[in-house]
Amino acid sequence: MGRTNHQYRLAARPVGLPTPADWEYVAEPVAEPGDGELVVKVRYLSLDPAMRGWMNEGKSYIRPVGIGEVMRAGGVGQVIASRNPRFAVGDYVSGTLNVQEYCLSDGTGLTTVDPALPLPVYLSVLGMPGMTAYFGLLDIGRPEPGQTVVVSGAAGAVGSVVGQIAKIKGCRVVGIAGGEQKCRLVTERFGFDACIDYKSQDVRTALRETAPDGVDVYFDNVGGEVLDAALARLARGARVVICGAISQYNATDQVRGPANYMSLLINRASMTGMVVFDYADRYPEATTELAEWMSAGKLRSLEDIVDGGVRAFPDTLLRLFKGENTGKLVLKVADE
Amino acid sequence: MGRTNHQYRLAARPVGLPTPADWEYVAEPVAEPGDGELVVKVRYLSLDPAMRGWMNEGKSYIRPVGIGEVMRAGGVGQVIASRNPRFAVGDYVSGTLNVQEYCLSDGTGLTTVDPALPLPVYLSVLGMPGMTAYFGLLDIGRPEPGQTVVVSGAAGAVGSVVGQIAKIKGCRVVGIAGGEQKCRLVTERFGFDACIDYKSQDVRTALRETAPDGVDVYFDNVGGEVLDAALARLARGARVVICGAISQYNATDQVRGPANYMSLLINRASMTGMVVFDYADRYPEATTELAEWMSAGKLRSLEDIVDGGVRAFPDTLLRLFKGENTGKLVLKVADE
């Protein structure tokens, strides 16, 4: 096709925050699809806190990205060549497209999507963050109407959806986010009952005021001190959902374990880890319900789109760990 | 009755390990029972790690012992005077008798027991430790035949019963205990498949060898580094039962939180706290089954009885936190 594919490969395993030396920027010709294969022109890439974990060696819930491999990323794009009967040229697809401009794929894990909706929505509410919020809250958190749900990372891709679903389910919802601007977004745009600014407030004290009956469900995206503050305010029988720990992903010394974990005993509470991929066979059920809530105006999505092309990937990723994004962080790779 | 009751009252809230200054030794006349009351002569007192928590101020699963109050303790004894129709003079009873020689009670929480069994058994396998092991393992740990169950404090009152029940249920059982002698007891007397000596072995490495397929159920009595080592070796879908954290009860700086808690996410595992009192209405069911296992020779009890009288309570309690007891630590208060 004579096209050139730019991509980022993992050059080294980072210590702490990823640096430019951890990446290799490569240009190579776009290959012609073989039998059963297709080529997707990447339009948008999803930037996720979990990416940091994929860059580490060692056992995790998913194979680490190998040194020299293209960095793993979810994305949405358009089919420009296909020898796979499931996909036609012109189709829009979402799936693991990786940090590059063109993705040669055998179709595994790719799903066609309806371009009537803005494509970035397939990386936020109707993508992994939405699935994570839906199953993490409803399957593991199991909130009941009238209960108090607290969510950290409340202005982020997952947290904002968790809180909105909890509101739909009749709960009192308190967010935790960094900065006045994010907190205003959380209450005004996403409709949470309250939002605690962990940068200017003592979270434990603020929870005493905003969740006076204790925390029935705590959905944790951040770990660290915020997790400890939430543990200190659990209600009897509370469920803590461990979805992420963004405050700890770049720790160069030991991870800060939750010193207040004995609150689980005092309150007969549980703390459970969740990985969204386990729910893959139920994504359609979640997608249907989330899309219905969106079209009914009960659920709002917010994407923070950086129009920088693949070249901007390393810098854009760092925004996640500096708490600079609001809503789902998306990298725009190509206009069309 | 002209008898004198010696008792220990809480004089101060300890910082770190309790010291003599935290106790007041008091002698007072034994009161005559009023209408509905009875007097129990205490024979044996139960010494439990949880006692340390009862001495602290602040929210817990049970009201703290107040300054100036008799120290709370479970015990077994004999009724010597009664104006309560449920109890006759000569009956043996177990319940909260507190750290004293005679207990004046309205009968609340007291149960008559059969003196055909040695009385200390009602403080171990057929008492709180047995109930804790039974419900913690079976209700929260939910082991399946062939799965691997790991128990810390394996030579202790709860841990030794947890492991034996897990063996009865067809599991592979690995204990963790301190010292060669305790480890030998755990494998030889209690029939565990293996026992790791945390004092001489690296627990994480030893778990790789003794639990090669990972840990399906981890029953934690100790917290600290041992909890972290077990978290590092969880199997997919593992259940961690938080029953106690004896390594942390006397910490004067902050409790050491489990740095490896993100293993809950990687392994889709859960960590759940349990308080035995929640199962009070099911004690009879557990007692029946535990007694059957005992009489069938499948379940062995071991009491570490200190014949020191009430006077020896403060020193004897410290043995728990120094890891000096083997099996259920019991203080003998009176011969008969």
Question: What's this entry about, in short?
Answer:
With 336 residues, chain A is α/β, with parallel strands linked by helices. Chain A has helices at 50-54, 128-141, 157-168, 180-188, 203-210, 224-231, 263-266, 283-295, 313-321; strands at residues 4-10, 23-29, 38-46, 74-82, 92-96, 102-105, 111-112, 148-152, 172-177, 194-197, 215-220, 234-242, 270-273, 303-306, 328-332. Chain A folds into 2 domains: 4-123 and 302-332, Quinone Oxidoreductase, Chain A, domain 1; 128-277, Rossmann fold (3-Layer(aba) Sandwich).
Structural key phrases:
alpha/beta, 336 residues, homodimer, 6-stranded parallel β-sheet, 7-stranded mixed β-sheet, 2 domains, Rossmann fold, 26% strand, Quinone Oxidoreductase, Chain A, domain 1, 24% helix
What does this structure look like?
2 copies of one chain form a homodimer. Chain A is of the alpha/beta class and 336 residues long. The first copy, chain A, contains 9 helices and 15 strands. In chain A, the strands form 3 sheets. In chain A, strands 3, 4, 5, 6, 7, 14 and 15 form a 7-stranded mixed beta sheet that branches. In chain A, helix 2 (128-141) packs across helix 3 and helix 2 (128-141) packs across helix 8. The longest helix of chain A has 14 residues, at 128-141. The two termini of chain A are 17 Å apart. Strand 13 of chain A pairs antiparallel with strand 13 of chain B.
From the alpha-carbon coordinates, what is the Rg of chain A to the nearest angstrom? 20 Å
Main sheet summary of chain A: 7 strands, mixed
- The low-pLDDT segments of chain A are none
Cα distance, first to last residue of chain A? Answer: 17 Å
Topology-level CATH name of the largest domain in chain A: Quinone Oxidoreductase, Chain A, domain 1
What fraction of residues of chain A sit in β-strands? Answer: 25-35%
